[in-house]
Amino acid sequence: MAFLDYAPAPESTSILSLREDYRLWIGGEWVTGGGEPFASVSPSTERQIATFAYADEGDVDAAVRAARAAFRDTWGPMSGRDRGKFLFRIARILQERARELAVAESLDNGKPIRETRDADIPLVAQWFFHCAGWADKLDHLGLGAAPQPHGVAAQVIPWNFPLLMLAWKVAPALAAGNTVVLKPAETTPLTAMLFAEVCEQAGLPAGVVNLVTGDGATGAALVRHPDVDKVAFTGSTAVGREIAKALAGTSKKLTLELGGKGANIVFDDAPLDQAIEGIVDGIFFNQGQVCCAGSRLLVQENVHDAVMDRLKERMATLRVGDPLDKNTDVGAINSSEQLERITRLVDRGVAEGGEAWSPACELPQEGYWFAPTVITGVEASSTIAREEIFGPVLSVLTFRTPDEAIAKANNTPYGLSAGIWSDKGSRVLAIADKLRAGVVWTNTFNKFDPASPFGGYKESGYGREGGVQGMQAYLKAGER
Amino acid sequence: MTTTTKTTTRLDVPKTYKLFIGGGFPRSESGRVTEVRDGEGRFVANVAKASRKDAREAVRAARKAQPGWAGATAYNRGQVLYRVAEVLEGRKAQFVDELQRTEGLSAARARAQVEEAIDLWVWHAGWTDKIAQVAGSANPVAGPYFNISVPEPTGVVAIVAPQSQGLLGLTSVVAPALVMGNAVVVVPAASSPLVAISLAEVLATSDLPGGVVNVLTGDPAELAPWLASHADVNALDLTGAGDLDWVALEVAAADTLKRVIRPEPGIAPETPQRILALTETKTVWHTKSRM
Question: Most exposed: A53, A403, A420, A458, by fewest CB within 10 Å?
Answer without folding.
Answer: A403
